[in-house]
Amino acid sequence: MPELPEVETTRQGIAPHCEGRRIRRLLIRNPALRWPVPADLPARMEGHTIHAVDRRGKYILIRLDAGTAIVHLGMSGSMRVVTGPAPPLKHDHVELQLDNELIIRFNDPRRFGCWLWSDTPDQHPLLNALGPEPLAAEFTGALLYRLARGRQVAVKSFIMDSRVVVGVGNIYANEALFKAGIHPNRKAGRISADRYHRLAEAIRETLSAAILMGGTTLRDFVNSDGKPGYFAQSLLVYGKRGQPCPACQRPLREVRTGQRSTVYCGHCQR
DNA sequence: AGTTTAACCTGGGTGC
DNA sequence: TGCACCCAGGTTAAAC
User: Distance (Å) from CA A38 to C1' C7?
Assistant: First the structure.
Protein backbone atom coordinates (compact mmCIF):
# COMPACT_ATOMS: atom_id res chain seq x y z
CA MET A 1 0.00 0.00 0.00
CA PRO A 2 1.43 3.14 1.31
CA GLU A 3 3.99 5.36 -0.25
CA LEU A 4 4.59 8.88 0.98
CA PRO A 5 1.26 10.37 -0.19
CA GLU A 6 -0.71 7.62 1.53
CA VAL A 7 1.27 8.02 4.75
CA GLU A 8 0.82 11.79 4.64
CA THR A 9 -2.91 11.36 3.99
CA THR A 10 -3.10 9.10 7.03
CA ARG A 11 -1.11 11.54 9.16
CA GLN A 12 -3.33 14.43 8.16
CA GLY A 13 -6.40 12.34 8.97
CA ILE A 14 -5.42 11.35 12.49
CA ALA A 15 -3.36 14.35 13.65
CA PRO A 16 -6.29 16.72 14.42
CA HIS A 17 -7.93 14.02 16.52
CA CYS A 18 -4.75 13.17 18.43
CA GLU A 19 -2.87 16.36 19.10
CA GLY A 20 -3.36 17.66 22.64
CA ARG A 21 -5.11 14.45 23.71
CA ARG A 22 -4.09 12.20 26.56
CA ILE A 23 -3.80 8.47 25.84
CA ARG A 24 -6.21 6.50 27.94
CA ARG A 25 -5.05 3.11 26.76
CA LEU A 26 -2.84 1.47 24.15
CA LEU A 27 -4.27 -1.93 23.29
CA ILE A 28 -2.10 -4.45 21.47
CA ARG A 29 -4.11 -7.32 20.04
CA ASN A 30 -1.30 -8.85 18.04
CA PRO A 31 2.29 -7.78 18.72
CA ALA A 32 3.74 -9.87 15.85
CA LEU A 33 4.43 -7.09 13.34
CA ARG A 34 7.60 -6.58 11.26
CA TRP A 35 9.35 -6.42 14.60
CA PRO A 36 7.63 -7.38 17.86
CA VAL A 37 5.74 -4.48 19.42
CA PRO A 38 7.69 -3.68 22.63
CA ALA A 39 5.94 -5.18 25.63
CA ASP A 40 6.39 -1.95 27.58
CA LEU A 41 4.86 0.28 24.90
CA PRO A 42 1.49 0.62 26.71
CA ALA A 43 3.24 1.56 29.95
CA ARG A 44 5.30 4.19 28.12
CA MET A 45 2.33 5.73 26.32
CA GLU A 46 -0.68 5.43 28.61
CA GLY A 47 -1.45 8.56 30.61
CA HIS A 48 0.78 10.73 28.41
CA THR A 49 -0.25 13.56 26.11
CA ILE A 50 0.26 13.60 22.32
CA HIS A 51 2.08 16.78 21.34
CA ALA A 52 2.23 16.20 17.61
CA VAL A 53 1.76 13.60 14.88
CA ASP A 54 4.59 14.08 12.40
CA ARG A 55 5.93 12.20 9.41
CA ARG A 56 9.50 11.37 8.37
CA GLY A 57 9.62 9.51 5.07
CA LYS A 58 7.02 6.78 5.42
CA TYR A 59 7.23 6.74 9.21
CA ILE A 60 4.51 8.33 11.34
CA LEU A 61 5.90 9.82 14.54
CA ILE A 62 3.49 10.07 17.45
CA ARG A 63 5.30 12.49 19.75
CA LEU A 64 4.48 12.37 23.44
CA ASP A 65 5.91 14.39 26.29
CA ALA A 66 7.92 11.31 27.28
CA GLY A 67 9.17 10.01 23.92
CA THR A 68 7.99 9.05 20.45
CA ALA A 69 6.14 6.10 18.94
CA ILE A 70 7.53 5.21 15.50
CA VAL A 71 4.80 3.72 13.31
CA HIS A 72 5.14 2.30 9.80
CA LEU A 73 2.25 1.08 7.65
CA GLY A 74 4.35 -1.49 5.78
CA MET A 75 2.71 -2.66 2.57
CA SER A 76 -0.83 -3.15 3.79
CA GLY A 77 -1.29 -0.99 6.88
CA SER A 78 -3.90 1.69 7.51
CA MET A 79 -5.24 3.68 10.44
CA ARG A 80 -8.91 4.42 11.04
CA VAL A 81 -10.52 6.91 13.35
CA VAL A 82 -13.34 5.11 15.16
CA THR A 83 -15.88 7.32 16.90
CA GLY A 84 -18.33 5.00 18.58
CA PRO A 85 -18.47 1.46 19.94
CA ALA A 86 -17.59 -0.82 17.06
CA PRO A 87 -16.14 -4.31 17.08
CA PRO A 88 -12.56 -4.54 15.81
CA LEU A 89 -12.05 -5.77 12.28
CA LYS A 90 -9.82 -8.63 11.31
CA HIS A 91 -6.18 -7.48 11.43
CA ASP A 92 -6.84 -4.57 13.80
CA HIS A 93 -3.60 -5.24 15.66
CA VAL A 94 -3.08 -2.05 17.68
CA GLU A 95 -5.43 0.61 18.95
CA LEU A 96 -4.90 3.96 20.57
CA GLN A 97 -7.73 4.93 22.90
CA LEU A 98 -7.86 8.67 23.55
CA ASP A 99 -9.41 10.59 26.42
CA ASN A 100 -12.16 11.95 24.15
CA GLU A 101 -13.66 8.51 23.42
CA LEU A 102 -12.02 8.37 19.98
CA ILE A 103 -10.05 5.30 18.99
CA ILE A 104 -7.30 5.12 16.35
CA ARG A 105 -7.18 1.57 15.00
CA PHE A 106 -4.13 0.23 13.19
CA ASN A 107 -5.03 -2.48 10.67
CA ASP A 108 -2.33 -4.41 8.79
CA PRO A 109 -3.16 -7.75 7.11
CA ARG A 110 0.40 -8.54 6.02
CA ARG A 111 1.96 -7.30 9.26
CA PHE A 112 4.93 -5.65 7.57
CA GLY A 113 4.24 -2.50 9.58
CA CYS A 114 5.68 -1.62 12.97
CA TRP A 115 5.05 0.16 16.28
CA LEU A 116 8.30 1.01 18.03
CA TRP A 117 9.41 3.43 20.70
CA SER A 118 12.31 5.83 20.95
CA ASP A 119 13.34 8.65 23.24
CA THR A 120 15.44 10.10 20.41
CA PRO A 121 13.73 9.14 17.13
CA ASP A 122 16.12 11.16 14.96
CA GLN A 123 18.90 8.85 16.09
CA HIS A 124 16.90 5.65 15.73
CA PRO A 125 18.57 3.16 13.33
CA LEU A 126 15.50 3.19 11.07
CA LEU A 127 15.56 6.98 10.75
CA ASN A 128 19.09 8.24 11.18
CA ALA A 129 20.33 7.47 7.66
CA LEU A 130 17.28 8.64 5.73
CA GLY A 131 17.73 11.01 2.81
CA PRO A 132 15.89 14.30 2.39
CA GLU A 133 12.14 14.74 2.19
CA PRO A 134 11.20 15.01 -1.50
CA LEU A 135 9.03 18.05 -0.85
CA ALA A 136 11.70 19.90 1.13
CA ALA A 137 13.98 22.55 -0.33
CA GLU A 138 17.14 20.48 0.06
CA PHE A 139 15.86 17.86 -2.40
CA THR A 140 17.16 19.01 -5.76
CA GLY A 141 18.34 17.66 -9.08
CA ALA A 142 21.85 18.75 -8.11
CA LEU A 143 21.67 16.47 -5.06
CA LEU A 144 20.53 13.50 -7.15
CA TYR A 145 23.28 14.14 -9.66
CA ARG A 146 25.94 14.32 -6.94
CA LEU A 147 24.77 11.12 -5.20
CA ALA A 148 24.58 9.27 -8.53
CA ARG A 149 28.28 9.77 -9.42
CA GLY A 150 29.78 6.35 -10.11
CA ARG A 151 26.58 4.45 -9.38
CA GLN A 152 25.81 1.51 -11.67
CA VAL A 153 22.37 0.79 -10.24
CA ALA A 154 19.23 1.41 -12.32
CA VAL A 155 17.92 4.94 -11.81
CA LYS A 156 14.58 3.52 -10.69
CA SER A 157 16.20 1.56 -7.86
CA PHE A 158 18.31 4.64 -7.09
CA ILE A 159 15.34 6.94 -6.48
CA MET A 160 13.58 4.22 -4.46
CA ASP A 161 16.60 4.06 -2.10
CA SER A 162 15.55 5.83 1.10
CA ARG A 163 19.13 6.98 1.72
CA VAL A 164 18.88 9.02 -1.49
CA VAL A 165 15.38 10.42 -1.01
CA VAL A 166 12.54 9.15 1.15
CA GLY A 167 9.01 8.26 0.19
CA VAL A 168 9.36 7.21 -3.46
CA GLY A 169 7.89 3.72 -3.79
CA ASN A 170 7.18 1.64 -6.84
CA ILE A 171 4.09 3.46 -8.09
CA TYR A 172 5.49 6.97 -7.94
CA ALA A 173 8.92 5.93 -9.20
CA ASN A 174 7.26 4.66 -12.39
CA GLU A 175 5.19 7.81 -12.73
CA ALA A 176 8.03 10.27 -12.10
CA LEU A 177 10.39 8.55 -14.54
CA PHE A 178 7.74 8.69 -17.23
CA LYS A 179 7.16 12.38 -16.59
CA ALA A 180 10.89 13.05 -16.76
CA GLY A 181 11.35 10.96 -19.94
CA ILE A 182 14.02 8.77 -18.34
CA HIS A 183 14.29 5.02 -18.97
CA PRO A 184 13.87 3.20 -15.62
CA ASN A 185 16.80 0.87 -16.26
CA ARG A 186 19.30 3.58 -17.21
CA LYS A 187 22.27 3.51 -14.88
CA ALA A 188 22.03 6.23 -12.25
CA GLY A 189 25.57 7.41 -12.98
CA ARG A 190 24.83 7.93 -16.70
CA ILE A 191 22.24 10.70 -16.44
CA SER A 192 23.00 14.40 -16.89
CA ALA A 193 22.52 17.07 -14.25
CA ASP A 194 19.89 18.65 -16.46
CA ARG A 195 17.87 15.46 -16.63
CA TYR A 196 18.16 14.97 -12.87
CA HIS A 197 16.72 18.43 -12.47
CA ARG A 198 13.70 17.31 -14.49
CA LEU A 199 13.46 14.12 -12.47
CA ALA A 200 13.50 15.93 -9.12
CA GLU A 201 10.76 18.21 -10.43
CA ALA A 202 8.72 15.22 -11.63
CA ILE A 203 9.02 13.51 -8.23
CA ARG A 204 7.85 16.66 -6.44
CA GLU A 205 4.94 17.16 -8.84
CA THR A 206 3.80 13.55 -8.71
CA LEU A 207 3.90 13.28 -4.92
CA SER A 208 2.24 16.67 -4.38
CA ALA A 209 -0.60 15.87 -6.74
CA ALA A 210 -1.14 12.48 -5.10
CA ILE A 211 -1.29 14.01 -1.62
CA LEU A 212 -3.91 16.50 -2.80
CA MET A 213 -6.03 13.61 -4.08
CA GLY A 214 -5.76 11.58 -0.90
CA GLY A 215 -3.25 9.06 -2.21
CA THR A 216 -3.59 6.09 -4.52
CA THR A 217 -5.87 3.15 -3.78
CA LEU A 218 -5.09 0.03 -5.81
CA ARG A 219 -6.70 -2.62 -3.67
CA ASP A 220 -7.01 -1.78 -0.08
CA PHE A 221 -5.64 1.60 0.92
CA VAL A 222 -8.13 3.59 2.95
CA ASN A 223 -7.60 6.89 4.74
CA SER A 224 -8.45 7.51 8.37
CA ASP A 225 -12.15 7.83 7.47
CA GLY A 226 -12.09 4.46 5.75
CA LYS A 227 -12.29 6.07 2.30
CA PRO A 228 -10.06 5.28 -0.67
CA GLY A 229 -7.67 7.72 -2.35
CA TYR A 230 -8.35 8.98 -5.85
CA PHE A 231 -4.93 9.40 -7.44
CA ALA A 232 -5.29 6.01 -9.17
CA GLN A 233 -7.31 7.70 -11.91
CA SER A 234 -4.41 10.09 -12.50
CA LEU A 235 -1.78 7.38 -12.99
CA LEU A 236 -0.02 7.68 -16.35
CA VAL A 237 1.83 4.37 -16.64
CA TYR A 238 1.67 2.30 -13.45
CA GLY A 239 -0.39 -0.84 -14.01
CA LYS A 240 -0.97 0.04 -17.67
CA ARG A 241 1.19 -2.44 -19.53
CA GLY A 242 0.06 -2.75 -23.16
CA GLN A 243 -2.07 0.37 -23.03
CA PRO A 244 -1.16 3.32 -25.25
CA CYS A 245 1.45 5.76 -23.99
CA PRO A 246 -0.32 8.98 -22.94
CA ALA A 247 2.18 10.95 -25.04
CA CYS A 248 2.92 8.93 -28.20
CA GLN A 249 0.26 6.17 -28.16
CA ARG A 250 2.75 3.34 -28.54
CA PRO A 251 2.00 0.42 -26.19
CA LEU A 252 3.58 0.70 -22.73
CA ARG A 253 6.08 -2.03 -21.83
CA GLU A 254 6.59 -3.84 -18.55
CA VAL A 255 9.85 -5.26 -17.22
CA ARG A 256 11.16 -6.13 -13.78
CA THR A 257 13.67 -3.92 -12.04
CA GLY A 258 14.96 -5.60 -8.91
CA GLN A 259 11.86 -7.70 -8.21
CA ARG A 260 9.51 -4.77 -8.84
CA SER A 261 7.24 -4.30 -11.83
CA THR A 262 8.32 -1.42 -14.03
CA VAL A 263 6.12 0.12 -16.70
CA TYR A 264 7.48 2.61 -19.20
CA CYS A 265 7.32 3.87 -22.76
CA GLY A 266 10.24 2.63 -24.84
CA HIS A 267 9.86 5.60 -27.18
CA CYS A 268 9.45 8.52 -24.76
CA GLN A 269 11.82 7.30 -22.04
CA ARG A 270 15.52 7.11 -22.84
C1' DA B 1 31.59 -1.12 -1.13
C1' DG B 2 28.02 -1.75 -4.38
C1' DT B 3 24.44 -4.63 -5.93
C1' DT B 4 21.37 -8.50 -5.86
C1' DT B 5 18.55 -11.83 -3.37
C1' DA B 6 15.72 -13.71 0.20
C1' DA B 7 12.81 -12.88 3.87
C1' DC B 8 9.14 -11.05 6.83
C1' DC B 9 3.22 -12.10 6.02
C1' DT B 10 -1.80 -12.35 4.15
C1' DG B 11 -5.08 -12.12 0.55
C1' DG B 12 -6.76 -11.69 -4.07
C1' DG B 13 -6.65 -13.30 -8.65
C1' DT B 14 -5.73 -16.93 -12.14
C1' DG B 15 -5.45 -21.30 -14.18
C1' DC B 16 -5.93 -26.20 -13.93
C1' DT C 1 -15.06 -25.85 -5.20
C1' DG C 2 -10.57 -26.75 -4.42
C1' DC C 3 -5.87 -26.23 -4.80
C1' DA C 4 -1.45 -24.72 -6.37
C1' DC C 5 0.71 -20.88 -7.82
C1' DC C 6 1.85 -16.00 -8.65
C1' DC C 7 1.60 -11.28 -7.46
C1' DA C 8 1.26 -7.00 -4.48
C1' DG C 9 2.07 -0.20 -2.55
C1' DG C 10 8.08 -1.65 1.94
C1' DT C 11 12.28 -2.43 4.02
C1' DT C 12 16.08 -4.98 6.21
C1' DA C 13 19.75 -8.15 6.31
C1' DA C 14 22.26 -11.64 4.26
C1' DA C 15 24.55 -13.19 0.25
C1' DC C 16 27.11 -12.43 -3.88
Answer: 32
